[in-house]
Amino acid sequence: MTTTPTQATDLVTLTIDGIEVSVPKGSLIIRAAEEAGIEIPRFCDHPSLDPVGACRQCLVEVWMPGPPGPDGTPSEARQMQGPPGRMKPQASCTMTVAPGMVVKTQVTSEAIDKAQQGVMELLLINHPLDCPVCDKGGECPLQNQAMSAGRETSRFEDSKRTYPKPVNISSQVLLDRERCVLCARCTRFSDQVAGDPFIALVERGALQQVGIYEEQPFESYFSGNTVQICPVGALTGAAYRFRSRPFDLVSTPSVCEHCASGCAQRTDHRRGTILRRMAQNDPEVNGEWNCDKGRWAFAYSSVGDRFEFPMVRENGELRVASWPEALRVAAAGLGHANASGVLVGGRVSAEDAYAYAKFARQVLGTNDIDFRARPHSAEEADFLAASVVGTGPQGGAVTYTDLGSASTVLLLGFEPEDESPIVFLRLRKAFRKNKTRVYAVSPVASRGLAKMGGQLIASAPGTEAEVIAAIKAGRGSKRVEEAAAALAEGGVILVGERLATVPGALSAAAALAEHTGARLAWVPRRAGERGALEAGAFPTLLPGGRLVTDASARAEVALAWDLAGLPDTPGRDCAGIVAALRSGELDGVVIGGVDPFDLGIGDADAVLGGAFVVSLEQRPSAATAYADVILPVATVAEKSGTFVDWEGRPRSFEAALTTTYVSDYRALDMLADEMGHFLGCRTQREVADEMTSLGAGTGPRPTAPNVPPAEPRQVADGHLVLATWRHLLDQGSMQDGEPFLAGTAPRATARVSATTAQTLGLADGDEVRVDLVTGACVVALVTISEMADHVIWLPTNSAGSDLRVALATEGGDHVFVTKDGDA
Amino acid sequence: MTQLTPILSKFWDAEQSWSLATYEQHDGYRAMDKAFAMEPAAVISAVKDSALRGRGGAGFPTGMKWSFMSPPDGDARYLVVNADESEPGTCKDIPLMMANPHVLLEGVAISSYAIGCKKAFIYLRGEVVHVYRRLLRAVEEAYAAGHLGENIHGTGIDVDIVVHAGAGAYICGEETALLDSLEGRRGQPRSKPPFPGAAGLYARPTSVNNVESIASVPGIILEGVDWFKGMGTEKSAGFGIFSLSGHVKNPGQYEAPLGITLRELLDMAGGMRDPNKKLKFWTPGGSSTPLFTAEHLDVPLDFESVGAAGSMLGTRALQIFDETVCVVRAVDRWIEFYKHESCGKCTPCREGTWWLAQILHRLEHGQGTEADLDKLLDISDNILGRSFCALGDGATSPVTSSIQHFRDEYLAHLEHGGCPFDPQAAVLWATDKESVSA
Description:
The complex is a heterodimer. Chain A is α/β, with parallel strands linked by helices. Chain A contains 25 helices and 38 strands. Chain A has five domains: 8-122, Ubiquitin-like (UB roll) (Roll); 128-302, Alpha-Beta Plaits (2-Layer Sandwich), CATH 3.30.70.20; 325-374 and 530-694, Rossmann fold (3-Layer(aba) Sandwich), CATH 3.40.50.740; 397-525, Dimethylsulfoxide Reductase, domain 2, CATH 3.40.228; 719-819, Barwin-like endoglucanases, CATH 2.40.40.20. Chain A has a seven-stranded mixed sheet, with helices on both faces. In chain A, strands 1, 2, 3, 4, 5 and 6 form a six-stranded mixed sheet that branches. Chain A is globular, with a radius of gyration of 29 Å. Chain B contains 17 helices and nine strands. In chain B, the strands form two sheets. Chain B has a five-stranded mixed sheet, with helices on one face. Chain B has a four-stranded parallel sheet with strand order 3-2-1-4, sandwiched between helices. The two termini of chain B are 44 Å apart. The chains are: A alpha/beta, B alpha/beta. Chain A binds chain B through residues 51-57, 59, 82-83, 86-89, 94, 114-115, 118-119, 121-123, 125-126, 155-156, 158-159, 161, 181-182, 200-208, and chain B through 169, 171, 186, 191, 339-348, 350-355, 358-359, 362, 375, 378-379, 381-388.
């Protein structure tokens, strides 16, 4: 990625408070002043929002160069006035720089100092003096700037505007209207950045206020950002309100554990209790935004059901045990097992995943390890080995920045708003600012797609491979042809993890990228997947993308690990391990954070009941119910480590809390010890150093898979094909304990095309009964104008719609739909 | 002695003055034929040469506004007529549209042709439903007669007019707030640049002009530039409707050349309502223009002279107040209006009017100190030129000018512990009986 250096001709030179600065053409005065190190007070101004000029706090005096004289040089600068004779202050947040402009801020202009003090005084007349009980007190731009740009005393002695307080603008965001300075940051954010204009300013004058629509609640995945950018304490999060004062908090830079977006965050705790998380500014990744899940879904660790101590099963019951006892029992159990596998799950840090990978090879002597606790395929394994592992921003892989400047982005099996919300925000910004064209191969045009200005290339589930092949061939509907032509001009293809469920689709995607020259990136849903792939928690790959089948790669790793050799046959993938557990071929398993239901296992007893199960877990799950030994491990706030985001960018984080919990690598190290192996994974530094020294493999990269598309199964009369993905906010166990957040989760609805609805005699809003192989669910029907016919979309794991087991069951992807109540 | 120049108001007294038939009897829609035979640029030049200045208050040259629009690019361009007349005291556009709507429609057709617009909008103040009905009927008549629509008078020129009723917000008289409102949004002023001439209605080049400005165009085309410049002063050419209201014998609209004085107008209007009561103060151009007193009776009412005397010509809304009126009470009520109408977008106007209103209300009731007067002036200083649009600026005019001219009267309220005036003495049905003060 080369960037054009800013040409001197693109720069505009002006003088601010006597300091000459050169800034890019089109810059706002307030930004230019920042370059000169001058801070102009402001409220409505926000660099990531369109200028509005509402609060008038950033007024400056401006002198424009006069018209050029006979020799072409501009005559003396003239003060901007209005009415004549009176200096007219200009809002530095809306006025752009001009060559030769002279700006005087509060630093050098007395009149401006007075103007700013005047605005500040006016802002304060209707602002309550409740700083001592306000959540913003101590970190409040109004408080701070009232000190720097305000009068010492107020002359206001009349009545302040008051309101009953607070107003719930959603279950998680509260509004104290009397504190609001009406800067419109929240409404502009929601409208411009998130594309969710569910809040707006209503009423007039001093009674103007932020309002919501009765019929469209403020259910935006990004609503928490409005709380963070509110320059006063008007918007507060229900979870944090009245919990703490900012100066009592200890802040730790952190990385979000929920998805592969890799958001920089800040975790604030007071006396060992996490009270809030904020988005941290990282221009290359999340900008200064995050999603509500990242912000608010952290209470799962404090709902009261943590495994605080190791547990062992005795006479069928779990009981608390000491670490030495638990390790002894675990070591004995795994030692007695004929063959064991490792299920890592997609949520652990890269260091943890590395320890699992090493444990499997060194201690268990197997490649039976997989992080993919979700639908997957052998084709996917080949695809990841060929096109994904070992890439990253350093190596020229697709980055967020590339998304922002791409001319075309094609989404395959990927719904960014639900599955990687910061990718969504970046694509929306690209659409707004760069006119990036977005195409999605998906069964249904979502609202998220509309917000990215995206166009749907409709494809029923199972037909994606053929549709992708059609794009490659450049033949099909007008839109397919347009997308093909656009991609050929240089574009980006984003592949979601769901594409693994369609035979041939990933092969087709790789072939499309090869054919068009478009750049390809894989966006998994969970935060730990990419790191686990890189760490070798994979049946066909060792750390650093080294192939299990590559003898020299094995030798390289064996040498580093001080072993005679490594198992040389590719291991079972997740489904294979489950099948082997079911059949008894495997009779031992080490399970990380894996929920059997995510694997589509409805009968965990048949899978885990007969095996010796060692579970490294934080809280009870369907897997720990069958565990013979439970080793308690740390949550993300309690450990340091690294997630690798979808770009392949390492995102390291420190422990926010000091606890006695250990990270998975430490528990595995101790278990290995007990089993007579030195794993060398005692500290994060030790693991990270080893990972670094091992580095990436240098062996040849395998070629991309070439799996032919499978013929989609015939749809029986009256049946529909099930399409699904997970909503960002759903029944995921890491959202437990946060009822305010859950209150804005999208309700489960069934989406069908208008044609399909008509065929079935159904109408928008009907309660419909969807017969799944696991039972029926009853949800409201929504007809979608752009959607593949004979398809019904339901969320994967929302209240009233849990498809995880049904989808993994033979024939479960075809469903029968009737109006609820009809026979 | 300046004479009245009834042009727009020439036949307001005719039977059914508003009908198409009446308008056609008075050369109606003839200017259109003349204009359509000219090049559009020539029409703009004529309006430019006439030195017609915007009649909505700011006085920006109309022809220049048109020539500042982005050049035609083949896509839509709009003319929007600002008929959101809401300024306290201003009542010229509404009577004009009521009595002679067709002169506006003809003006719209000619102006649209000049600027290359095929679809024009008249944004009417929402409360005046009777005017709305009359405009709708007039547009209907004009379409039926072929004066509007496609291929007008067989010239191949198309002009459509949409009459849109606002929802009753003073701020929508601000041209960019009007455009937002017309687009279906909340009426709040937009950031400029871009100016409407570059990106106005639906982000297309748009000219927003006052009713009276547009209605003056047919006359300029038909009678010629020199005819128009023959009236008024050099820099404030032409005629205008002067609306007299308040304590005047015959309130109403007086169409006269710019530069006429209030003394002359008062003479024509039969003098003060009660000849025994003296003129105390008056507004030259609505409540947003600084107050004048009896000493300004001979100020020529043109843009330059009124400006030089410390006020603004504004919309020529001459509200006359005699000595029975308490200036503090009058200003208090005006500020209440601005507080109510402030859109809330910017801090100075939103919070400033809220504060001013409370102080004035106190002072009117005798509560406060002399320091409050300085506070009023300082708050006004912090609003004027700091607010987003002119609404906030306008709100300070009555406050600062009333304190300038009537500081003692404010103080009298404080000394008296309340208003020393009997509000009953100022009303229409007041008797000469000596009133008893509170």
